Amino acid sequence: MRGRRGAALVLLPLAVVGIGAAFLADEGPGPVPLHDRPIVAATLACPDLGMTPPGAGDPLEPAGGVRLDVRTGGLADGRVTVAPGDREVRTARGAGRLTLPPVEGGGRDGALQVAARDRLAPGLSATVTAPGDGAGPARARCVPASSRTWFVGPSTVAGRDPVVVFANLSDQPSQAAVRVFADGPAGPARQVSVPAGGTLTRRLAAFAPEATVTALDVEVTAGRLLVWVSDRSSAAGPFAASRFVPATAPPASRLLLGGVVVPVGPPAPAATLALAAPGRAATVRVSVLTQAGSRVPVGLEAVRVPAGGAIAVPAPLPAGAASAVLVESTATGAGGAATGAPVVAGLGVASGWPGVWTWAVATRIQSSSGGQGLDAYGRGTGLSRLDGPTSGAGTAPDAVVAVPPTPPGAAGAVVLTAPLGPVTAWLDGAEVRLRPGSVAALPVPTGPGGGSLSAVGGPLVATVVSGAAPMPGAGVRAAPAAGAGPAAGAMLPRILSAVVPLSGAARVLDVPAVVADPAVAYR
């Protein structure tokens, strides 16, 4: 195992503005003049949704093959490597797929690493999909390894048994400090050590027993780790499989959760908004965004989040339609910017099956200056220049986001949200216009490699939702967005199993002019 993991390539870096200049990230350009350099190597880490925890008899997801969908920035044919196992994904016109068969008796490592070099490295993105149960597939986006990760939402009360997975991506021992915020007293950070190339699983209840809501802060202090959470029931039976909980945005004073689709009942549609204030106490305003616009539900005008604690509040989302939730600290600064105490958030959506929640994460939203475009998580992954961000669809070589295809036998939709300003987006060339504070659901492109999304205006947040396909003759079709035409309505899943946030992958590095090797600054 050590030999298989030892060939990790340079991590995909994050530049300072969003794709097509969505909005400025927290980090501005440094004092040293920057030059554009091509990316020569990129590595992403993917949770192995088909893994069996050490010492357990069953995998976290129902047995079956795991599918890996890979996209590169260009249309070149080539090979992308997958570790462990020295496997390859052969790409044709920038897209490829690899199916990993089920492993008898477990034996999976907990994480996959997808690496590309030379002409295939720019724009590398990947999505991993497991069969899930009858409620639909489990899906996750592959991401660069991060030194700090947040998860918000899962409960550890009786009947719930979430698990935290720590996968070591290197040949050296790794360590992490784990801090949990809950609806009770917050305890001190606890240290977790993972052996070289190994995987460690811990029940969330070991960190926060009998908590109705949790927020998990994982800071890697040594080595490289991929951390992920699976929210699962402690009871066996159909449709009780775990639900992957994606990493959410770090603390911020303005967050967008979703977009999501709440399936038509039974059971009755419901959603729960989980909030935590890692620092000082916060008061937030919660808005629900739909195709018709934005509104603040009664009772959510000023929600108090205690310092160092977590709470859960009901989020009244419409059934059978796309929606999103905007969380804003009520204190404002110049220009209307949110300046209140930062919070972290997660959104648990009733999946359409009793007792099973599907989790959507937050995107950090910031006001834009100048041209805007598409991004997610509030992280910059596009091109920056000394005279300001690039703007306009297609004006930068990294102004496109890959949309993964819907798995066979499932239903899915692309959900676009414009929380602050108007947006014009193009999904495989089809134009969609969104008003400020609105949401739209569109069909996922039907090509084997998925599709491509670009935008101007904004900011814009995009997700792909997946789940069980509608019964014959009983499908619910979303209303088309303004300017999209009647063919743009998406067939919504009858059960929601996964919400995957989309973001672009950098195709150009910004490096100091004095650095000869563009990879040095990011090692």
Describe the structure.
The chain has 523 residues and is an all-beta fold. The chain is 1% helix and 42% strand. The strands form nine sheets. Strands 18, 19, 20, 21, 22, 23, 24, 25 and 26 form a nine-stranded antiparallel beta sheet that branches. Strands 2-7-4-5 form a four-stranded antiparallel beta sheet, with no helix packed on it. It is globular and about 55 Å long. The two termini are 22 Å apart. The model is unreliable at 1-32, 332-338, 368-398 and 514-523 (pLDDT under 50).
Shape: globular
Structural class: mainly beta
The helix tally amounts to: 1
Helix content: under 10%
Separation of the first and last Cα atoms: 22 Å
Poorly predicted parts = 1-32, 332-338, 368-398, 514-523
- Report the portion of residues in β strands: 35-45%
- Radius of gyration (Å): 21 Å
Q: For the report, how would you describe the main beta sheet?
A: 9 strands, antiparallel
Question: What is the count of β-strands?
Answer: 37
Calculate the mean pLDDT score and round it. Answer: 77
